[in-house]
Design brief:
Number of helices: 19
InterPro entries: Acyl_Trfase/lysoPLipase (IPR016035), LysoPLipase_cat_dom (IPR002642)
Mean pLDDT: 88
Radius of gyration: 23 Å
Family: Belongs to the lysophospholipase family.
Pfam families: PLA2_B
CATH superfamily: Cytosolic phospholipase A2 catalytic domain
EC number: 3.1.1.5
Bound molecules: 2-acetamido-2-deoxy-beta-D-glucopyranose
Keywords: Glycoprotein, Hydrolase, Lipid degradation, Lipid metabolism, Signal
Amino acid sequence: MKVGLLLAAASAAIANPLTTPRALPNAPDEYSPANVTCPATKPSIRSAASLSTNETDWLEARHREVLSPMRDLLKRMNITGFDASAYINLVSNTSNVPNIGIAVSGGGYRAMLNGAGALKAFDSRTDNSTAVGHLGGLLQSATYVSALSGGGWLVGSVFLNNFTTIAELQASEQVWDLRNSILEGPDHKHLQLLHTASYWDDIVDAVHSKRDKGFNTSLTDYWGRALSYQFINASEGGPAYTFSSIALMDNFKKAQIPLPILVADGRNPGELLVGSNSTVYEFNPWEFGSPDPAIYGFAPMEYLGSDFSNGQVGANGSCVRGFDNAGFVMGTSSSLFNQFILRLNSTSIPDTLKSVIASILEAIGEANNDIAAYKNPFAGYSHTNASISSLSELNVVDGGEDGQNIPLHPLTQPNRHVDVIFAIDSSADVNSWPNGKSLVRTYERSLNSSGVGNGTTFPSIPDTNTFINLGLNKRPTFFGCNPRNLTGPAPLVVYIPNAPYSHMSNTSTFDLSYSDEDRDAMILNGYNVATQANSTQDAQWAACVGCAILSRSADRTGTTLPSVCSDCFQSYCWNGTLDDREPGEYEPTLQLRTPNSPRPIVPYKPAGPLMGRECFGVLPCSRKSGQPRS
Ligand SMILES: *[C@@H]1O[C@H](CO)[C@@H](O)[C@H](O)[C@H]1NC(C)=O
Ligand SMILES: *[C@@H]1O[C@H](CO)[C@@H](O)[C@H](O)[C@H]1NC(C)=O
Ligand SMILES: *[C@@H]1O[C@H](CO)[C@@H](O)[C@H](O)[C@H]1NC(C)=O
Ligand SMILES: *[C@@H]1O[C@H](CO)[C@@H](O)[C@H](O)[C@H]1NC(C)=O
Ligand SMILES: *[C@@H]1O[C@H](CO)[C@@H](O)[C@H](O)[C@H]1NC(C)=O
Ligand SMILES: *[C@@H]1O[C@H](CO)[C@@H](O)[C@H](O)[C@H]1NC(C)=O
Ligand SMILES: *[C@@H]1O[C@H](CO)[C@@H](O)[C@H](O)[C@H]1NC(C)=O
Ligand SMILES: *[C@@H]1O[C@H](CO)[C@@H](O)[C@H](O)[C@H]1NC(C)=O
Ligand SMILES: *[C@@H]1O[C@H](CO)[C@@H](O)[C@H](O)[C@H]1NC(C)=O
Ligand SMILES: *[C@@H]1O[C@H](CO)[C@@H](O)[C@H](O)[C@H]1NC(C)=O
Ligand SMILES: *[C@@H]1O[C@H](CO)[C@@H](O)[C@H](O)[C@H]1NC(C)=O
Ligand SMILES: *[C@@H]1O[C@H](CO)[C@@H](O)[C@H](O)[C@H]1NC(C)=O
């Protein structure tokens, strides 16, 4: 681009940073939560026994909105012998319309970019995505999109910027510029508008404005503010953008776009977080809460930070708005990464700022430097267990810390009735590739159905050695194909693991900056992974995705799917075979021959502060010991 154009674009952005409207900057006092007059019906906590009326009302509209994109999608998928129009007409006014969820895993920028490739492939607005063998329209047909950690940066970027496209994010002058590390701050494409020091000064000021109102803050507040500069297209990273404002967007209200859900875990003082008993929280545009027995309640998102006690805002309690800052929510879901801030010491920022960081650390202690502090909305709430309801503050951490690095939890809740989940896995299990471990964790948790699983069912998942030995981590695999082999209703899971098609996409979780070329190569690889190189690896792939979408619905309506579907299930369904022998080193090479020469695998960066921690799906681990590699 010419320098003159660049200047024009940049000054236009300065003059009017709100040229592209998006979610709303509707917080009362920028980053700082503020007391407001309570609404006529005071905010309250509701039991998790059913879905919110917000969601059930919205679903009614969404189920109508998906009919036309789904009809078109299924027609394009060329499922020989299947009349898509007739089928959609048949089920259109019933609960038999296929209910589709998409789940995007964590794993830092690697997960954001690989996930972006999948979303780009699923989005009918992407150029050529509705061509033969592509999957465009799946996003428009989906009801739910869940994400956590790095995946949450992706889903946050899309929904907070008015459901923008991946191509627009790539082309943007304002967001998704990953060339500068987040520690340095954005420079708006060559125009150093913001110095690193003033960037951090602004961040510190914002966080202090919250602290000064009496709210506990942590590294996650700083992290969330920093993330916002990269992901929210507004000046200073849109300090007034709230997550709940997504619910006020026209296209969301009309149910023209899917429901975004971010996931985080609970880890209160003294708790050890393990997958089999973790408390999993969700953030959706209306609510924050958890259906797990430990909480079993939901609080209105817009009024987080209010004085809830016993499930109500009492007569003398104040109503607070602006706590649900959009960057803070994204930062909470990715709090494991807030330790990147500790690397500020190795940059050239002023010492004053370094000492701010040092004092935060002193206040919270190393062991808790990954938490986000939420004023406890479930204090005294009757359904919440006593040890949590007695706390004044909830500690919430990265959604991947319990090892369930794919955000399946909200999509496996029985009252959501999801039929099929497209699970995009960018975990770093072995050499920064996934090996199914996240699915194993979710499966194990579901086995404790009367406890933490609380009635959820999940398909049988083999051990991680089997994943590698059978190649289930190299190409898409379906789990739970046969509903008769499940202990209760559960979705079919279409597992889509990150794999090297056109690019070695196992980049280190510690890569804090990407050139535009590398960023785009990661996204294109993700597109190729999801589409199996536009069905060039298997000409039936698009049809098989259609069969997966239809599977549960056809079962309910007693419809026999055509033989192409039987073939698909034969080739893509895991059939129960196990091979748990210790596999050799997993070092896959590029699956596609492309004109671009492959980038060599980059060895892991040396140990930083992150390396002292346990090994989670979001961080690279060595294969045997489960300890971080050095
Ligand atoms: C959001 O995007 C839609 C579709 O592109 C557009 O029609 C609408 O005007 C946008 N909304 C805002 C608030 O910009
Ligand atoms: C809100 O009002 C309460 C008194 O009702 C006061 O204690 C509190 O400090 C106020 N909070 C803020 C953020 O202004
Ligand atoms: C969600 O439902 C509650 C209770 O019915 C209502 O007060 C609130 O306005 C709804 N939220 C939105 C964003 O529509
Ligand atoms: C649809 O599938 C049939 C056979 O399965 C094939 O002959 C035909 O070329 C396909 N059409 C398209 C547009 O791919
Ligand atoms: C579905 O409902 C709409 C209106 O609610 C109606 O026009 C249509 O005929 C119904 N379709 C079927 C197949 O019942
Ligand atoms: C879309 O397809 C056309 C025709 O095959 C091609 O010229 C164009 O480059 C493609 N666009 C993208 C984004 O791949
Ligand atoms: C979860 O299990 C671990 C290990 O069994 C235990 O130490 C921890 O206290 C449990 N946490 C909760 C919240 O129950
Ligand atoms: C960073 O530098 C400050 C001041 O130079 C020092 O007090 C602090 O301990 C350092 N923090 C870390 C995490 O190394
Ligand atoms: C889920 O947990 C709640 C709260 O402990 C309980 O009331 C409910 O019966 C449980 N549901 C199932 C299906 O186990
Ligand atoms: C698949 O399609 C996309 C978009 O049209 C294109 O950019 C990409 O190169 C194609 N992949 C292969 C392997 O041809
Ligand atoms: C099950 O899958 C394995 C490979 O994953 C294959 O070798 C075996 O033949 C399959 N069994 C049946 C009954 O299809
Ligand atoms: C069927 O269920 C059994 C028992 O839960 C399980 O061991 C087996 O792996 C399941 N088969 C498939 C294909 O999921």
